[in-house]
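As a warm-up, study this chain.
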Amino acid sequence: MQHAVVSQNEWLAARKALLAKEKEFTRARDQLSEARRALPWVKVEKNYAFEGPNGRETLSDLFGGKSQLIIYHFMLGPGWVQGCPSCSFLADHFDGAAIHLAQRDVSLVVVSRAPFAEIEAYTGAGGTTNTAPFVSLVSPANNASFVAPASIVLSATASDADGTVQKVEFYSGTTLLATISSPPYTYTWAGVAAGSYSLAAMAYDNAGAKTVSAWRDVTVTTPVVLSKAVFVPAIVPDVVLNYLLEIFAAGTDPAVSTPVATQNVGLPATVNGECTADVRNTILGLAPGNYVATVSAFTSEGSRLRSNAFAFTR
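Now compare it with the structure written out below.
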């Protein structure tokens, strides 16, 4: 094609005219896509059968435990020496999309009209078909909840029927968290910030085949920091001088243990029979963990009266 050489202003005018047509095409394509999505469904009543590396399988078998299935027809007919070039181009990119599709609960299967023996010959598999490894993410539980900064233990089981498992990778979405090359396939993801995460494991065998586990969703919540201590004032015959908040490690006896933090809360006013003290800064100074707290009243006669222990988590 012979292209005209024009000024920048002429090119810009031509480009804007083309842009208007491109936008018109985009809107038309969006409408077409919406119409395609709105097409009615058809109940599949025919018993389809497929022959592949796992033997004879039904249509429902191809879902592989997922709720959605994409079947791509790779055009390789019976007796063909070569498959469709465009299909071959797309097939070169299937593996890279596997983790994204699996994360969205989608199984991808490629089918052809050619007998399976001819498919094996065309792909170079011959009689040495490799079975992909098995992998299952066993920890954490689906829909588990943690408090930030969280430590989440990812644990998987993996096996290979006709070879060995070379490695297991752990993912958060498309982000690789860790690669474990030998069992136990366990990784502790530490310091996880508040948010929602989708986790999975991917196993690779010695022939390069890989399998993605079912995805598990977890939530990490922002910790609720205890900010106030509310207590009933001491009833004693003498004068209370002040109240003392003491915090102890969980599982210890406040009567005989050394506190990990203290705060003199003074003499808060009594409102509706309760005293309230701001203890947020003291709580923020604690390391994440489980604790118990008490409030003690000190009187003018030198006596001390301690409240019951209150358990909380930082």
